[in-house]
Amino acid sequence: MKASIMPVISVTTDSENLTMNVVADFPVPVRRLWDGYADPRQIERFWGPPGYPATFTRHDLFPGGRSEYFMTGPDGTRSFYFWDFLAVEEGHSFEVQDGWTDEDGTPSSDMPSVRVLFALGETPDGSRLTSTATFPPRKPWRSWSLWVSSRAQRLLWLR
Q1: How would you label 15-50 residue by residue, b for 16+ Cβ within 10 Å and e otherwise?
Q2: Residue 158 has what DSSP assignment?
Q3: Looking at the DSSP assignment, which residues form a beta bridge with residue 24?
Q4: How many CB atoms lie within 10 A of CB 94?
Q5: Which pLDDT belongs to residue 144?
Q6: Residue 41 Cα distances to 10, 59, 91, angstroms
Q7: Looking at the whole model, is its pTM more than 0.85?
Q8: Percent helix, strand and coil across the chain, each to the nearest 5
Protein backbone atom coordinates (compact mmCIF):
# COMPACT_ATOMS: atom_id res chain seq x y z
CA MET A 1 0.00 0.00 0.00
CA LYS A 2 1.41 3.39 -0.98
CA ALA A 3 1.42 6.22 1.55
CA SER A 4 -0.81 8.31 -0.70
CA ILE A 5 -3.69 5.81 -0.46
CA MET A 6 -6.25 6.64 2.22
CA PRO A 7 -6.87 3.60 4.44
CA VAL A 8 -10.40 4.80 5.31
CA ILE A 9 -12.88 2.79 3.28
CA SER A 10 -16.05 4.27 4.74
CA VAL A 11 -17.37 6.99 7.03
CA THR A 12 -21.04 6.78 7.88
CA THR A 13 -23.00 9.06 10.13
CA ASP A 14 -26.42 8.71 11.67
CA SER A 15 -27.68 12.11 12.77
CA GLU A 16 -30.76 10.62 14.41
CA ASN A 17 -28.73 8.35 16.70
CA LEU A 18 -25.73 10.71 16.81
CA THR A 19 -23.24 8.06 15.76
CA MET A 20 -20.37 7.95 13.34
CA ASN A 21 -18.63 4.81 12.06
CA VAL A 22 -15.22 4.95 10.44
CA VAL A 23 -13.82 1.82 8.81
CA ALA A 24 -10.17 1.65 7.74
CA ASP A 25 -8.12 -1.23 6.32
CA PHE A 26 -4.39 -1.67 6.90
CA PRO A 27 -1.86 -4.02 5.30
CA VAL A 28 -0.56 -5.16 8.70
CA PRO A 29 -1.53 -7.93 11.13
CA VAL A 30 -4.11 -7.11 13.81
CA ARG A 31 -1.40 -7.35 16.46
CA ARG A 32 0.64 -4.62 14.75
CA LEU A 33 -2.42 -2.36 14.60
CA TRP A 34 -3.19 -3.08 18.27
CA ASP A 35 0.38 -2.26 19.26
CA GLY A 36 0.05 1.08 17.46
CA TYR A 37 -2.73 2.00 19.89
CA ALA A 38 -1.29 0.28 22.97
CA ASP A 39 2.12 1.99 22.95
CA PRO A 40 1.94 5.74 23.70
CA ARG A 41 5.09 6.48 21.66
CA GLN A 42 3.53 4.76 18.63
CA ILE A 43 0.11 6.37 18.99
CA GLU A 44 1.81 9.77 19.06
CA ARG A 45 2.91 9.14 15.49
CA PHE A 46 -0.66 9.27 14.16
CA TRP A 47 -3.02 10.71 16.76
CA GLY A 48 -4.23 14.19 15.90
CA PRO A 49 -4.62 16.07 12.65
CA PRO A 50 -1.58 17.00 10.54
CA GLY A 51 0.31 19.88 12.11
CA TYR A 52 -0.99 19.12 15.63
CA PRO A 53 1.21 16.35 17.05
CA ALA A 54 -0.01 14.51 20.13
CA THR A 55 2.04 13.89 23.26
CA PHE A 56 0.72 11.27 25.67
CA THR A 57 1.61 11.96 29.30
CA ARG A 58 -0.36 8.95 30.58
CA HIS A 59 -1.65 5.85 28.80
CA ASP A 60 -3.22 3.18 31.03
CA LEU A 61 -4.82 0.75 28.56
CA PHE A 62 -7.00 -1.31 30.91
CA PRO A 63 -10.63 -1.06 32.10
CA GLY A 64 -10.81 1.89 34.48
CA GLY A 65 -7.52 3.25 33.12
CA ARG A 66 -6.97 6.69 31.69
CA SER A 67 -4.96 8.32 28.96
CA GLU A 68 -4.05 11.98 29.06
CA TYR A 69 -2.49 13.79 26.15
CA PHE A 70 -2.13 17.15 24.53
CA MET A 71 -1.84 18.33 20.96
CA THR A 72 0.46 21.19 20.07
CA GLY A 73 -0.60 23.51 17.28
CA PRO A 74 1.73 25.16 14.77
CA ASP A 75 1.80 28.29 16.95
CA GLY A 76 2.78 26.27 20.07
CA THR A 77 -0.68 26.40 21.65
CA ARG A 78 -1.61 23.21 23.50
CA SER A 79 -5.04 21.58 23.74
CA PHE A 80 -5.56 18.89 26.39
CA TYR A 81 -7.60 15.67 26.18
CA PHE A 82 -8.37 12.42 27.97
CA TRP A 83 -9.56 8.89 27.33
CA ASP A 84 -11.25 7.01 30.18
CA PHE A 85 -11.08 3.31 29.31
CA LEU A 86 -14.51 1.73 29.76
CA ALA A 87 -13.64 -1.70 28.34
CA VAL A 88 -10.56 -3.40 26.90
CA GLU A 89 -10.33 -6.74 25.13
CA GLU A 90 -6.59 -7.22 24.61
CA GLY A 91 -5.69 -7.35 20.93
CA HIS A 92 -9.31 -6.93 19.78
CA SER A 93 -11.08 -3.81 21.03
CA PHE A 94 -11.24 -0.99 23.51
CA GLU A 95 -13.92 1.53 24.40
CA VAL A 96 -13.27 5.00 25.76
CA GLN A 97 -14.96 8.14 26.88
CA ASP A 98 -13.01 10.72 24.88
CA GLY A 99 -13.01 14.39 25.83
CA TRP A 100 -11.27 17.67 26.51
CA THR A 101 -9.55 18.68 29.73
CA ASP A 102 -7.85 21.69 31.18
CA GLU A 103 -4.08 21.61 31.63
CA ASP A 104 -4.29 19.73 34.94
CA GLY A 105 -6.47 16.94 33.49
CA THR A 106 -9.88 18.07 34.77
CA PRO A 107 -12.56 17.27 32.14
CA SER A 108 -14.02 20.34 30.47
CA SER A 109 -17.61 21.19 31.30
CA ASP A 110 -17.80 23.38 28.18
CA MET A 111 -16.89 20.73 25.61
CA PRO A 112 -18.64 17.43 24.88
CA SER A 113 -17.13 14.04 25.50
CA VAL A 114 -17.73 11.20 23.09
CA ARG A 115 -17.97 7.46 23.66
CA VAL A 116 -15.84 5.60 21.10
CA LEU A 117 -15.48 1.87 20.49
CA PHE A 118 -12.36 0.83 18.56
CA ALA A 119 -12.69 -2.71 17.17
CA LEU A 120 -9.93 -4.53 15.30
CA GLY A 121 -10.33 -7.55 13.06
CA GLU A 122 -8.52 -9.58 10.44
CA THR A 123 -8.99 -9.17 6.71
CA PRO A 124 -7.51 -11.22 3.87
CA ASP A 125 -4.93 -8.45 3.32
CA GLY A 126 -4.21 -7.46 6.92
CA SER A 127 -6.49 -5.82 9.44
CA ARG A 128 -9.52 -3.58 9.77
CA LEU A 129 -10.19 -0.90 12.34
CA THR A 130 -13.80 0.09 12.94
CA SER A 131 -14.38 3.01 15.26
CA THR A 132 -17.89 3.79 16.38
CA ALA A 133 -18.41 7.14 18.06
CA THR A 134 -21.58 8.04 19.95
CA PHE A 135 -22.03 11.76 20.46
CA PRO A 136 -24.01 13.53 23.16
CA PRO A 137 -27.24 15.20 22.14
CA ARG A 138 -27.25 18.85 21.04
CA LYS A 139 -23.49 19.16 20.75
CA PRO A 140 -21.55 19.95 17.57
CA TRP A 141 -20.08 16.79 16.09
CA ARG A 142 -19.63 17.21 12.33
CA SER A 143 -16.01 18.35 12.76
CA TRP A 144 -15.19 15.00 14.42
CA SER A 145 -15.70 13.17 11.12
CA LEU A 146 -13.04 15.33 9.47
CA TRP A 147 -10.67 14.82 12.39
CA VAL A 148 -11.14 11.04 12.46
CA SER A 149 -10.54 10.80 8.71
CA SER A 150 -7.31 12.79 8.97
CA ARG A 151 -6.16 10.62 11.90
CA ALA A 152 -6.71 7.47 9.85
CA GLN A 153 -4.54 8.90 7.07
CA ARG A 154 -1.71 9.31 9.57
CA LEU A 155 -1.97 5.62 10.52
CA LEU A 156 -0.27 4.77 7.23
CA TRP A 157 3.12 4.73 8.97
CA LEU A 158 2.12 1.33 10.45
CA ARG A 159 2.69 -0.43 7.15
Answers
A1: eeebbbebbbbbebebeebbebbbebebbbebbbbe
A2: G
A3: 8, 129
A4: 23
A5: 53
A6: 27, 10, 18
A7: no
A8: 20, 45, 40
